[in-house]
Amino acid sequence: MRTITEIMRExxxxxxxxxLTARKKPFSVSFEESERQYDPAKHKIFDVQYRKxxxxxxxxxxxxxxxxxxxxxxxxVERVRIAIPVQKVLVERAVxxxxxxxVEYKITQNGSDMRNTNSAQDRLFNAVRKVFHWNKxxxxxxxxxxxxxxxxxxxxxxxxxxxxxxxIDLSGKxxxxxxxxxxxxxxxxxxxxxxxxxxxxxxxKVYNEEGTAVNHFDVYDTHFVYRFIDNGSTWVAEGAPAxxxxxxxxxxxxxxxxxEWEDVQWAIERAEDLVSNWGDTNDYFGTPKYFVKxxxxxxxxxxEQGSVxxxxxETDMHVLSWDSSPASVTGELANLFSxxxxxxxxxxxxxxxxxxxxxxTSGAAIRLMMIDPHMxxxxxxxxYGEMFTRRANIVASGICETGIVDKGIxxxxxxxxxxEPVFKPYMPKNETxxxxxxxxxxxxxxxxxxxRGIELNPLNDDPDRIEQEIQDEEQEAMEQAAQAMAIGDTxxxxxx
Length: 496
Fold this sequence. Notes:
The protein is α+β, with helices and mostly antiparallel strands. The protein is 42% helix and 19% strand. Strands 7, 8, 9, 10, 11 and 12 form a six-stranded antiparallel beta sheet that branches. Strands 4-3-16 form a three-stranded antiparallel beta sheet. The chain has a three-stranded antiparallel beta sheet with strand order 6-5-13. Strand 7 and strand 8 form a beta hairpin.
């Protein structure tokens, strides 16, 4: 297999494009089909070839000239089509459980926490955290997870600002851009014989002021970014290769083989069929319909109280209704939604489900109910943990290489330390139960200071001011008590 360096030595831009795009492993479900599954407006239930219109016979104002019977014609009637956005719910639940609490980072070395760090290590760690703060990573991580869970792949591109001459502007900030097929990006990672990323290519469109799209193709390796453009007939290089400022490939690539809903897509489609069929049935039987044998002399008006129907002799009239409720439909729907949430490892925390729990469910019981989605979130850290470590290493090496955030930090500092992400998947808890357990374990003794209690009180917007007010009130109460005692002593002296 050719390395990225060997490929970029080719003088033919079109051949470079072919070599970097032709060998990408395809997904079992195409991106276009996956997007149709994700968008409720494009679900199969709206496909008239899948759910055909209903054919009914309706009478016309014509009669058969021989028999005198009414002539009927066939008419296509639209059917009820109900799409359920389960795919969106599953994606949002996955994002919420994994990144409901922001990811934090700690310094490690050879897998162990570094407790005694020197000034250079502290400077680099603070610089990396400053870059993450600039890019608001606690929100970026959610967008990233949403893109990966939906499109099954995404990438983050780290870059440095450049001046008019293409040189890195050291007064600027390191920034990150989310690359996703959802945004029109085509991602082409390139791996060596040992499945290590040695290059990355991105194909995308740029629209000019007139709205005309121009295809671009960028390639990143360890030191350079190569830019190509489609001139309408072939690919051509756009300028000379430029340094991107990092001593590593400034790309973090994420890929999973299945979307959040892929294993239960069939159950979602079956649920939509059932609900839509149920809607069709309600259209026929939801409002009263009458079968009349004979001839009615009159019909009651809408809303008429105590209405009476009169007919000729032997006239009979019945209301058409179901003999039994659709228990089988509701039962199957319940089973389908149980399958959907169970086998997608998600939590059914709808309003109706939460009402069933009530106010007396223990915190331990709630945690047991959420153990499956919580474990699923922990499993996802297998991907995100490794990639977030790479993310931090890319930023740290860029800082040491260029001094863009903090000048004068040697590259050896970044090489001797690791940045390990700390995930805190969301898990509901009952604070009252936890506090009672802590109180019991300490024999009823205090386990927090008054200052900490003031800070945790959600009604206190300024803990310092509140604490001072409490101290002032206590001092005033002590002074009043002292004055009362002094008055009492004076009265006793007078009586004696």
